[in-house]
Amino acid sequence: MKRIFNNLLIVSLLAFSLACSESEDPTPHIVGTWEMQSEADYNVPSEYNWFAYEYSLADLGYESYTLELVKNGTFTIKIERIGLSTIADQGTWIHNEEEESLTLDLDGDEIVYSVEQNELDLLKLSQPIQALAISNADLQALLPEHNNSISEVIAYVNSLPQEERDQITAVISYEVLQSFSRAEEVE
Question: How far, in Å, CA of 50 to CA of 140, rounded?
């Protein structure tokens, strides 16, 4: 009887330990705190390629940009802006490893990123963008009239009446790539 009880106890403990180990999901690599290092425009149509840049945090007006992805499916974005107030936002996230996508949900406003790289301590996220742009040819024609300054050309174009602006601008589609490095390890 004692032997049956011991065998039953061992089988019960083994079943319990297997049930516990199966229910614990491993932490996905993407979970953790990430600091943005740069942002770059790519896949910009060739006739607008003056528009393609890689921006540092300072170029974007940021002191820091942190994305924290928590294992429970929540996230926090914190952007400390140079000379301005800090922006902080929270929501939920879903990482689809098969499609290599990351969806951030900010109160129903979803932002879907393609995960370009998720290895070691580097995370690269991209998303499609549309923006109003001026072509290389029109930019080159306007630069001499505006002190060879792209900023002055943009200010001039923005000051034009809508009808005139529409003649020298177009909506273009491209992608923005954000590069992050891991700020802290997840235990």
Answer: 10
